[in-house]
């Protein structure tokens, strides 16, 4: 039901993962359980989303062996630094209820504090060497961040997770990733991001785009399925988010049709070159007032309700 992508260290992950960004903690366990029962075997979360414990609960409730599920999570910037990031692993693993995390990535570069970013990545390398994680990577890294990281560290990231949808195709990032052998993983793969500071009054969801609607109609598919297929045919991993059971099932049902070269080029041509999310160069620990709680101080939303 899901095809696999091979990372640069040989680890294979399902190309279609399930995203839980902006899934409220009380909805997350149910969404994860629904997704696993619908056939997903890859969940993407982050310490900064505040729902790792509920992801673990959803996996347990599904009855599926956690060893069969690729669990991906991210270190938040307030935990950057060598020892801090080793501790961040302990916090995330405990909340998720696992001893090994499949894919552990840095959530953002911290351009103003790049040395702490490098130290955090060195901690990921240590965790990889120890067998505590199976693959390491980054998120929201632009080509110059990748180049700077490569100068200071030895392990090429396996994944770079970035905002990527038909209105923001990030061709320079995709090229840099490909040159280094990094899998590009799309967050907001169907353009569902909820803040569009650069788009002003002209903002319009890519889900309402006429070109995509036309391609979807010609294949008897939905716009979301066409966008996900576009990613997969171009070799990207995707992590669509939904809390709706029908849309959860729809987003993994994308393997029984093929976009042709004209379809792919038409979608590539929609790029506006304007991101919906934050500019990675502007991110700083003070950008968001988020501290990641210790594992023993976090109460599950589902346990407390
Ligand atoms: P919902 O959770 O109500 O389904 P992205 O992952 O690109 O950020 O998109 C997530 C957003 O898109 C969420 O608001 C989600 O809402 C919505 N969404 C997810 N799947 C679909 C779909 N198949 N069709 C339309 N909207 C979708």
From TrEMBL:
One of its GO terms (molecular function) is oxidoreductase activity, acting on the CH-OH group of donors, NAD or NADP as acceptor. Residues 22-271 form the NADP-dependent oxidoreductase domain. It comes from the Bacteria. Keywords: NADP, Oxidoreductase. Substrate binds at residue 107. PROSITE patterns: ALDOKETO_REDUCTASE_1, ALDOKETO_REDUCTASE_2, ALDOKETO_REDUCTASE_3. Pfam families: Aldo_ket_red (PF00248). The record marks 74 as: Lowers pKa of active site Tyr. The active site is at 49 (proton donor). Belongs to the aldo/keto reductase family. PANTHER family: 2,5-DIKETO-D-GLUCONIC ACID REDUCTASE (PTHR43827), NADP-DEPENDENT OXIDOREDUCTASE DOMAIN-CONTAINING PROTEIN (PTHR43827:SF3). This is Aldo/keto reductase. It comes from Microbacterium hatanonis.
